[in-house]
Write a structure and sequence with these properties.
By secondary structure, the chain is of the alpha/beta class. The protein has one domain: Rossmann fold. Helices cover about 35% and strands about 20% of the residues. The chain has five helices and five strands; from the N terminus they run βααβαβαββα. Strands 2-1-3-4-5 form a five-stranded parallel sheet, with helices on both faces. The longest helix has 14 residues, at about 25-40. Bound molecules: 1,3,4-trihydroxy-5-OXO-cyclohexanecarboxylic acid (DQA).
Length: about 140
Amino acid sequence: RTILILNGPNLNLLGTREPEIYGAATLDDVEAECTALAGDLGLAVDFRQTNHEGDLVTWIQKARGTAAGIVINPAAYTHTSVAILDALSTYEGPVVEVHISNIHRREAFRHHSFVSSRADGVIAGCGTHGYLLALRQVAHLLG
Ligand code: DQA
């Protein structure tokens, strides 16, 4: 079983992007940690990043019937994208939303997430460790 781990805009710069907020780990580091944990859990991961909203929509559509679960950090699209919410609403498996930072402790425009109304769980403010927590939660939901 494969878990799709999706990352939105600017997360390709993780490690160099505002490290005081997002930490020192790169997205490659996060992918390596997720791949290792998934192995322990008997799962595979398909780990992706894009700066384009439509890529996320298309990847979520293609996850129907192929991915056992989705972990998603929609980044800035969290706060703007009805299209990503609608795509996730067509998906039948478990969805866990991740934010590296605690979006509720930041600017008011980051407090609302369109994605959360479809997410089975939301993890925020745990740094990049949140991806591992999300992966464990998806495994737990899959039983
Ligand atoms: C983020 C929080 C968003 O508000 C921001 O736009 C991001 C990253 C996070 O992981 O903390 O790009 O999703």
